[in-house]
Amino acid sequence: MLRSIGEVPSSAINEEQLTLIAAPRSSLGYQNQILAEISTSLNVQSGWMLNAGDRVLCLTRQGEVKGSSLPEPGALTPMGDTVIANGLMMARGVVREEANGYQSMLMIVENRRGIGLGSIAVVAPPGQALDEERVNLETKNALSVFEDGQLQLRPANQEEQAGR
User: What pTM did the predictor assign?
Assistant: First the structure.
């Protein structure tokens, strides 16, 4: 059982993801701005997630939802123990029904070279439906200002394990 990111096999993460993991949490300013914009515009909680085997690492998160939330930043959490369990274990880019009435949507973020940098997760509380088109649009808009458009969403039909 993995207890820390140091125990994750090297095949489970790429060099760019490792750079994000190694960065001090205080250096995630741009990611926090992106997530805050998404959370505010959609009235959701959002987070930057990296898959690590059967666990997920939350790099940072913004916004709140009543009753539950994304994993704590820096914590390596079993996927099944998260409010976004279905979203983590299924294809990205689609709204997923989660336990207790929550909805989630995860989208793979990649750089211009097509290298996956993790996923942006969006979670809405019970009674609030997520609209896939609006979530995609708001996320693309938020990403477009990051380093002059260096980051983009991977099309949902181009899944690959390394980018999750």
Answer: 0.81
